[in-house]
Structure formats: structure tokens, C-alpha cells
Amino acid sequence: MKTRIITMKSEGICKYCNKGFSGQAMTRHILSCTDRKNKLAKEQNQDFQDKVFLIRANEGPFFLYFEASATSTLKDMDSFLRDIWLECCGHLSLFKIENVNYDSGGSVEIFDGNKSKTMDAQLRKVLKVNRAFEHEYDFGSTTHLDLKVISERQGGLKNIDIIARNNMPDFKCECGKPAKEICAECVYEGKGLLCEECAKNHNCEEEMLLPLVNSPRTGVCGYTGD
Prior knowledge:
This protein has 2 domains: 4-166, Structural Genomics Hypothetical 15.5 Kd Protein In mrcA-pckA Intergenic Region, Chain A; 171-226, no CATH class. The protein contains 5 helices and 13 strands. It has helices spanning 23-32, 34-42, 74-86, 123-126, 196-200, and strands at residues 11-14, 20-22, 50-59, 62-69, 93-97, 100-103, 117-118, 132-137, 143-155, 161-166, 181-183, 193-194, 209-211. The strands form 2 sheets. It has a 10-stranded mixed sheet, sandwiched between helices. Strands 12-11-13 form a 3-stranded antiparallel sheet. A hairpin with a 5-residue loop joins strand 8 and strand 9 (143-155). It is globular, with a radius of gyration of 19 Å.
């Protein structure tokens, strides 16, 4: 999705201290956040301890910081990303990690004759600190995410836990007013952000207009954030 919203800056809130930071500054903050360190210190005496990864996912102004147990699978992470950011029509998806594809459709042959693997792999088997990897959802109108393992720690974590997420970006219509809708047709031309008034006079069909949502899939394939 090539639009001018890709260049926007955004901020998010750290769940531990409730302070706001930009996407770039959030990494440094989470690693040094005193409130987070104090909370995690209290968990050190729990019976169940395992490796926990801190992972960043981002695309344009949209970002997520989340923690996942090393015993979680890529399928668990895929479900998490779908639930919060991506799911619209049950499309296939995949992770690309160290030149290996892990496909939601199972082990399938890809265009170069090689076979992709399933998403059953545990994170401990495929990830490590500073490893960058990718996620793609929908191989037609693809939403691409860049991910990176920021750090790891010992702890007990049952479910994937959101640490920070970007606030809704301050989308602007071309007229300068706050944008409320996005045109699924014009978004591929680098435009399509519309205020309520401009949406009424927009040339494309009405069904092309979608609500702006806090997701990199906004404006794509009928995605409404539900």
C-alpha cells in the first residue's frame, strides 16, 4: 500500500508507565522503563519461568510492541497479528525468517520449486535477539509487516501481551480537515484520505469508501477493523 500516510509520524503509550513516545523512541524507553523493571522483578519468583521475547512489528506510522513466550508458535503470533491488525477475509499469510517461508496454509510448494514450512514452529526454534523477519497477509492485496526481536528475558507468560501500540495517527484530508474515511481505489495512487465533506463529493463509487482505522490494513480489501 503506497500512500502518503506511510510517511506520517506517530506516537504510542507504554503500558507500564502510561507515558507517550514516538515509534523510534519506544524501543529505548521499554528497555529502560523503571515501572516495567519493577513489575518484572516481582515476577522473578514465579514457579514457571521461560524465555520471553520482546518483538516490534511496524509498517509506516503503525507499530506494535509485544511479548511472546519462546514456547509460543508462529501460528500463535500469526493469529495475534490477524486479530489486532489484519483479518478481513481469511486470507493466507506467511512469515519470512532467514530466507525460509512459514505458511499458514501448511507445507506448500512456492514459485521457485522450494517448499515452505508450517507455522507450527516454536519461536525458540526460529527467533533470537536482533533477528529481523517479515510477515505478509493476503497474497493479492498484501499487507507487509517488518518485525524484529528487540530483547529477551526470563518470565512466565501464557498469552501474547501488548506492551505498546501506536495511537491513531492524525490523518488529514487533502483539504486540511481531519480525515474520517479512506478510498480503497485511490489509496494505491498515494491519496484517498477524506474528511466527511470531501467524501460526499468523491468521484469513486460509494462502496470504495472505508472507515479509517488504526491498522496498516486500513483502506485495503474492505478492512474495517472489526
